[in-house]
Task: structure prediction
Amino acid sequence: MLGEDLKTTYMAQRANLCRFLAARLRDDAVAEDLVQELWVKVSKLELKEELDNPVSYLFTMAGRMALDHIRQRQRRSRRDEKWTDESTETVGGFATSAEDDGETRLLRAERIAQVRAAIDTLPPKARRAFQLHRMEGLSHKEVAAELGISVSTVEKHIIRAMRELTQILREADP
Result:
């Protein structure tokens, strides 16, 4: 029955474990996944003796899982950066695949230049919202906070930018 006490403690502490991991990882979805993974580990655990502090034991396990997740994410990021560095080449200030022939790289660089020129023609507010969201990766909420406007206004700016860019780029294609 040693494992049953830990399972009962897990169930009582589940919400706290989620909050703990969400604070550490700054990602609610990953925290929820790790808490589920913790349950699987707890369910399979065969304790040989009673734990002095099962709550502490669970939080220690969760903390180690969070650390493993962070390390894995960092390794993946370094691997992806290395692959990108090895498989791309800069042509005229634009990253292109090193495997592409010269003509393909030139066409891609021209297309990127067209897109950048089209972005420059956008109205200033729509351009800034688009750049923050699409190019810098900020969420609509983060863009709204950065620009001091509502999320709804951010969405309208981005929709307008996308419409105008689509139109400009369609007209640019032969």
Observations:
- Residues 92-172 form a domain with the Arc Repressor Mutant, subunit A fold (CATH 1.10.10.10).
- The first helix runs from residue 2 to 25.
